[in-house]
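Quick one, T. Sequence first:
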Amino acid sequence: MSSRVISLDLNSDPKTIWRNCLNIIKDNVPAITYNTWFLPIKPIELTNKTLKIQVPNNFFIEWIEEHYNAVINKAVKSILGENGNLIYIILESHEDDGEDAGLTKNGQPVVLQEPKAPKIEETPVHNVSSFMQNNVEEEELIFNSNLKPKYQFENYIKGESNQLARAAAFAVSENPGETSFNPLFIYGGVGLGKTHLIQAIGNRIITKYPDKNVLYIPSSDFASKFVDAIQLNKGNEFSNFYKRMDVLIIDDIQFLVNREKTQDLFFHIFNTLHQLGKQIILSSDKPPKDLKGLNERLISRFQWGLSADIQPPDFETRMAILKNKAEKFGIQLQHGHIEYIAYNVTSNIRELEGCLIKVLAIASLGSKELDMNSIKKIVKEISTTRQVNVSIDQITKAVCDYLKVDENKVREKNRRKEVVQARQIAMYLSKIITKSSLKTIGLHFGGRDHSTVIHSFDCVTQLLQEDANIKEVVESIKNKIEISST
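Structure tokens:
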């Protein structure tokens, strides 16, 4: 470990100050730790000796404080002096941490020391016009669109499970309000990427059409803000504000179920926006027709445009997601490890990411070597939908697929060399992988007796010692079988 002291220039911009801090941190932590936990941090503002930096979420803060607080303090004080302070700013909305958009941990900036800094606006803002209370004059208002910059089409992995939804979303982002996909209704189970996709639309529209008023809001927030407006006797102002949106994105619309007054209000906002040719984008865990407790006239309007579902990702898509996120996190994983996670975590993308975060934690702390047993343990802890134990039939299929032999032939009395070899390897692997008896194994291969199984086992065992090519083949097949099992 090493450190350096750099003379402080208080006129330096925050990027320069943070870059100098990073130079010290980089010398004191492993490369994977530096890439994972420090490179994503963005400097925001420098006031006297207090540097404000942006972090992705509360998890980042908790992890950094627990594991790298001393390293960061050392760097900050080396650059800013003994009175140097650091403030973490979170730009995540409530979706990930259950807090209001723009607030940091416990509603306040998280500090390493105790700087007396005023609370600042911490979320991205977008200029829009809003009605004044007299609804005649207008004024410019700095408005938070609630969109997270990380949600982009570029990092949304496309696959068969989301192909229609992704294509429709991209078309809407190209020409908001001008396609037949209005409203665009995206639905699917938890953790499948609905929020990512609908926010990607908003982010692309803001980039392509910076003058458009774009707002993303979860339906639960919409409902609670409406209640607040009614209590303050500002129902008209609330309604007028939403009617001025060019693109209105409402997440988890199912939470409006059984909220009759909120549904009535949204019905009128929806009608106004649709008649004006504005784009409406909605997400839900169910298709419109299955939203029981929602007004029929709203359901009817939701079906005016396009409803597109997102299904759980297939194996190839899960592999692509894992590789993409591993690269983003700076994790170097063996291909077999990625395959194992992809085979066994099948329900949603959040569980895939959860596995990678756990892998990342182990790798960055350097407390344990990442082997297949470690990967299996992580998957077992996180996955709610693991595969069942492998069967003899699955082993036979894996062997025959690998050796390109007709699966039926290994059960017949076929003495061709390639068939015999496939049969013997399948029997060998069935004996060492499954708990089946020799008799049971023999029955799966055309009713052969236990002596044939023993002979096949002995032949393969001897070949593994004598033939490197056979050893490589058997190990490759075994690895593929293990990947697909728990």
